Amino acid sequence: MTGRKTELRPIIALSCGEPAGIGPEIAIRTAWQLRSDINCVLIGDAAFLAMTAAAIDPAISLAAVSVEAVRNDGLPMFGEARVVVVDCPMPCHVVPGTLNVGNACYVLNCLDIAIESAVQGWSEAIVTAPLQKSIINDAGIAFTGHTEYLADKTGTPRVVMMLAAGTLRVALATTHLPLKEVAAALTYERLSEILRIIDHDLRFKFGLPKPRILVAGLNPHAGENGYLGREEIDVITPVIEAQRHSGMDVRGPFPADTLFQPKYLRDADCVLAMYHDQGLPVLKFASFGRGVNITLGLPIIRTSVDHGTALDLAAAGLGNADHGSMVEAVTLAAQMAQMAPAALIR
């Protein structure tokens, strides 16, 4: 099945993440809250999600459909009175807050179905609830994160992690690397490709005709003319100059400790940080619980929340989790899907 029934509202597939965490709750709450404007398709164990929904609010109505039915006939027509669940059976019982290695493959199966939904066209974007990397690895499956998994499954050679909160967007040149490996990873070719991906997706997925990108240096004081490191001189500045020559509006490198202030950010569409903990603490301090994680460079649209599985909150019972970041992630995914769908083919 390659296509979907015409809907006035965008169809967004939500993989529900680690079942022992807050993912199922925040996905259900978000889908029900946004049902008037966005058709959220939950992907997970239908019986478990129905039980969770009933405990949250008996008024929530879910309608289950099998993966095979969707592949053969497409998604059923939607209505505001219900949320559709694509059933992905879960092998083991769930205890909130307690990880079970037996459900690791289930989590990835849900993610695979979400990816399939976007690739095959029966959803317009995917939003992923948090999963627990450790339990997947404990199951003997090599897994470093959603970003890398999505790249592998879609055959994408390079992707870029970006977090957004309103108009503040922070992309990462490296993601889940030990700090001692970052400098070696910042090659001319890698940074050049990352900047091209950011520029492309800001244009075609965010509708920014001439995005302005600010680049942070790697070293303190952006290397201070080589006295505190030469990465800025040898790699980062040459890349910026080459991309500016090609027509991109990219500037820097700026010292990271002074870059994140209004006089720079007010005219910026994105900041490129060199490593995970250089850029993300600033964004999360400013907007934790309302930020959105976006994977740039994919042939599909993918967003996610800015937090983890919160096993402690799940163990405390339903009603303790804030689903604000999931609402923002779904809303942004829908906006991106409506921007320029044809441009997603790179």
Globally, the shape reads globular
Q: Considering DSSP H and I runs of 4 or more, what fraction of the residues is helical? A: 25-40%
Trace the largest sheet across and list its strands: 3-4-2-1-5-12-11-6-7-10-8-9
Overall domain count: 2
CATH class identity of the largest domain: Alpha Beta
Portion in strands: 15-25%
Mean model confidence by pLDDT? 92
Structural class: alpha/beta
Largest sheet: 12 strands, mixed
Number of strands: 12
Q: Which CATH architecture of the largest domain would you pick?
A: 3-Layer(aba) Sandwich
H/E order of the elements? Answer: EHEHEHEHEHHEEHHEHEHHEHEEHH
Number of helices: 14
- Find the CATH topology of the largest domain: Isopropylmalate Dehydrogenase
End-to-end separation in angstroms reads: 22 Å
Q: Detail the poorly predicted runs.
A: 1-6, 342-346
Alpha-carbon Rg, integer: 21 Å
